Structures are given as structure tokens and as C-alpha cells.
Amino acid sequence: MSEKYYITTAISYPNGKPHIGHAYELIACDAMARFQRKDGKDVLFLTGTDEHGIKMLQTARKEGIPVRDLADRNAAEFQRMAASLNASNDDFIRTTEERHKIASQAIWKAMEANGDIYKGGYAGWYSVRDEAYYGEEETEVRPDNVRYGPQGTPVEWVEEESYFFRLSAYQDKLLALYESNPAFIAPTERRNEITSFVRSGLKDLSISRTTFDWGIPVPGDEKHVMYVWVDALTNYLTAAGFPDVNASRWKYWPADAHVIGKDITRFHAVYWPAFLMSAGIQLPKRVFGHGFVFNRGEKMSKSVGNVIDPMALAEHYGLDQLRYFLLREVPFGQDGNYSHEAIVNRTNADLANDLGNLAQRSLSMIAKNCEGRVPSPDAMNDTDRAILAQADAALATAREAMAGQATHHALAAIFAVVSDANRYFAAQEPWALKKTDPARMEAVLYTTAEVIRRIAILCTPFIPASADKLLDQLDVPADKRSFADLGDPGALKAGASLPAPQGVFPRYVESETEQA
Ligand code: ME8
């Protein structure tokens, strides 16, 4: 039985259309999920939408439509985004589904049975936008005479009857968790922020609302709906079959990685493990809070029109170009910027020039000089073997990087081989060997094609469609494209006929309006 791997994105609020931040997170998780599948693991990759809560109600009211219609319409947009970004999610959860109501009520009852839920009254500074109460000391009145919370959103005084979760009882347990399991929160700066937040003291958490009814009813007291974060976080359990521990998916729990944006680390690294400890459920192995991506390139807004629509970006630059850029350029965990110039430079340099040209030049030479068949490796020497070994060695580096969600390191390692393969190709001068030593020419072309096969397999998690196109050109069967097929056992067979080579990575050429 293969090892399991369960990875999740945050579930997005469908109170608007998807934006580049959503696309960024989904693409990163997709690369991670695909990487583990290629590495032989049995993967469950989950994404979805977080449909309850007052924000949804407010947006629906503003638009004058029923909240369910708003949820349906925008959930469909998120599903469309996932498909058009080539996301390989195994499930798409919507928190308005029946299975999720069952799971949320079950975790509530388990926390209640453990004595961690009690009824009380709540009065405090509430941010509608954050759906969170804040202590007075966390808020400030600004010159506009409006009181703001720590996230910079307006807060108002709200009083309501509410159920509470005994979060205060989990302070020491959480600190012990962070201490004994330093990998639980990543990257380190997030871990430090969370640790000092918990150290500063935890108050019990209001976990129900009576001021609206767009949510999951509290079991046994239906005038309350659950605080949206109790319901939202539980989605990760729902998709694994909870509360049915005999469900076929329950084997995936605990999740190996919850990948989320840094703004919601507190919910995932403080509330979530506390809820799970209370309910007696195993904790996820890791919470990774990635950075934010921002648009700084003014030029792009002119050329693309709507810069925040990730599907327009993918259409404009090419999906794999966008995926490559986001995964390679921005160190995962840090904030990053995207701009027209940065995307064009990165994808032209790495994809079109380095990988694309290498493939195009070597495969065209094979088509022309070897009758379109895989050349003979008979005259291979140590230099050839060294570049092949280098490609194989990149797997270990990439594997270690991906275990730490460092997509940029994984791609850097793979593209270092691309650069070396280009240097190798230039130094071997197969075009000159054609007359002087045809057997060596064949060996060099064989080696180059084989190194491209290995690189393409390593690239499949990141730029799946383009990597598959490269592998099609080498006539590699679909079931021979895993990491287990790297190395000599899966090597190209001399004499096998190859399809006519085609360019896979077109150069981005500035249109006249962009040059202006
Ligand atoms: O927070 N760059 O939903 P959401 C990178 N429903 N990531 C970004 C981003 C940006 N510019 N903007 C947002 C929610 N994100 C909750 C989650 S999980 C149980 C509930 C990230 O639609 C954000 O950090 O506001 C989050 O991880 C995800 O997009 C969804 O954000």
C-alpha cells in the first residue's frame, strides 16, 4: 500500500469572484499534490468554498439576491477557475453541503461532550469583515472617528447570547505542541508570531451567533448558528469522511499540510488544533502560511485589462507560464509581486530560451540526422553520464524542498539541470560531430533527449500540460512518467521512432500596445 498524503487549500469566500491570491494558493497546492502523486503517494487534494457567515449575507443583500444564489453562482466561478488552472483536486467541498453539516455538528458535539463548550453572553468589538471579536486594547479610534480592529477593518459594539469554546484551557497544550513539534507551523516567522500570540494569553472564543441564520445550526439550540470559522475549519474533516471513521477516505486524516495565506494562520494554528484536541481528533501535521502576491506592474493592467482575474492572466501569458512564474519567482512563504515584465522575463528566459530551445534544437537534429529515431547511446562517455546523473540527483533536492513547501527551491534545482544541459549541449557541439564522429553525435543527442525526458518528468507537477507535451515528443508512455521512471530503467530505447518535433514554449512577444 502506498503512503498517503492529504493536502488542502483554504476554502475561499465566494462573496466575489476568484482573484490572483486564490489562484496562487491553488496552483501551489496543485504542484505539491502532483509532486507527491508522481512520487508514488496516494494523494487526497482538497479545495472548496466557505459559504456561510455574515459577509455572504451582506453581499447577497447588496446585490438583492438570495444568499444561496450568490453562493451557487460564485462557487461555480471557483470551480471554473480550478478547471482552467489545471488543478488536480480530488474533491471540491462546499460548506453548504449536507455532508458538511453532519461533520460540523459532530465536531461540535464532541467538543461539548468534552466540557469545552458553555453558554454565555458576549459583548465586544466586532469586525463584520473579519467576523471576529477583538479586545478593546486591540482596537483604535482613528482620526475619522471610526474604531478599527488589528486587521484595519472597522469594528462595532455587539452584544449577543453566545456559546463559548474554552480556548483558554488550551494555551499550555498549544505551546507544548509548537515546542515539541516545530514543523507544525511554517515558515518560521509565522511560527514565532503564533507562539507569541498564544503566550500573551488566550481568551475563550465565542463560537455561535444569533443575529443571523445563514450558517450551520448549533445542535440542540437551533436559534444559534455556528461561528463561521468552526464550520469552515471542519471542512478538512468533512472531505475525509468525518464523522464516519469507516469511510474510505478516513485513512487520509490527519492532513499532511494545510496550505493557507498568512492572514489566516491564527485560525489554523491556534483555534483548529484546539478544537481537534478537544474533540479527540488527531492534529494535522503542518500549517503553512504563505505570503501574499501583489500586482505592481502598471503596464500589465493596460495590456490584460483586468489584472486580478487569474483566468485572464493564464490566457494572456499561457497557463504553464503563469504557474511557472508564480512557483519559481516568489519564494513560497514570502510576499511577492507580479508584473508584466517579471512574468515575461522569467518565462522567456527559463521556459522559452533554456528548456524550450534545448528541446527544439536537439529534437530537430534527431529528426534530421537520425531519421526521427532515438539515436544510439553506444558511444556514451562519462561526461554524458554525469549530466544524466545530475538530472536524477535533482529529485532528492526537489523532494526535500517540496517536503518543506519550497516550490521555488524545487524548481531552481530542476532548472539548474536545464542550464547545465544547455552548457553540455553547446560544449559537445553535436553539429560538428556529425562529420567527424557520427557515433559520438548520436550519443550526445541521445543523452540530451534522455536528460530532457528526466527534466520533463521532474517538471510535470509544476507545468503539467507543457511537460506532458515534451514527453509526448519523446514518445514516453503515459504510465511511464512518474519519478520511479527517472534514471536508467525508464530510459529512451534506441531506434524507437519519434513524432515530428514541435515547439512547446513559445516566446512571449510584446504586442505593439505593450511596447508603446
Ligand atoms: O480567508 N495573495 O477566504 P478568502 C495570496 N474563507 N493569497 C491570498 C491573497 C493574496 N493577495 N488574498 C487572499 C478565507 N489570499 C476563508 C478561509 S479556511 C478554513 C477559510 C488567500 O477567500 C488567503 O490567505 O478570503 C486564504 O488562504 C485564501 O486566499 C482564501 O481567502
UniProtKB/TrEMBL annotation:
Residues 5-362 form the Methionyl/Leucyl tRNA synthetase domain. The keyword Nucleotide-binding applies. It comes from the Bacteria. It catalyses: tRNA(Met) + L-methionine + ATP = L-methionyl-tRNA(Met) + AMP + diphosphate. GO terms for cellular component: cytoplasm. It holds the Pfam family tRNA-synt_1g. Its main location: cytoplasm. One of its GO terms (molecular function) is ATP binding. Its EC number is 6.1.1.10. A motif ('KMSKS' region) lies at residues 299-303. Residues 374-513 form the Methionyl-tRNA synthetase anticodon-binding domain. InterPro entries: aa-tRNA-synth_I_CS (IPR001412), Anticodon_Met (IPR041872), Met-tRNA_synth (IPR014758), Met-tRNA_synth_2 (IPR023457), Methionyl/Leucyl_tRNA_Synth (IPR015413), MetRS_core (IPR033911), Rossmann-like_a/b/a_fold (IPR014729), tRNAsynth_Ia_anticodon-bd (IPR009080). It is found in: Cytoplasm. Keywords: Aminoacyl-tRNA synthetase, ATP-binding, Cytoplasm, Ligase, Nucleotide-binding, Protein biosynthesis. A motif ('HIGH' region) lies at residues 12-22. Belongs to the class-I aminoacyl-tRNA synthetase family. MetG type 2B subfamily. Is required not only for elongation of protein synthesis but also for the initiation of all mRNA translation through initiator tRNA(fMet) aminoacylation. This is Methionine--tRNA ligase. It comes from Tianweitania populi.
